[in-house]
Amino acid sequence: MGWPITELRLAFAWTCDACGRDNFERGVHRELTAEQLRDRYADAPVDVVTGHELTPPGRVACPHCGAVFKAVTMGQDLGHDSA
Ligand SMILES: [Zn+2]
Asked: Which helix (H) or strand (E) holds 72?
């Protein structure tokens, strides 16, 4: 008799700058058309092309302290003023 099975989903992790707690957000999942796949992943290895796309939420709220942030992904411009 084996253990019950659960399905893992991809998620986005972030740390709240207000209270320091780690949080996880579900991504926005959508299925891509064949044309969208060709446009976006023409140079990608075949094994990474699944027909599904997971995008991060644009805004997150900390469930611990209620602070709200604009969400950007790693390497994306943080939007700080340079002046
Ligand atoms: Zn917080």
From this structure: none
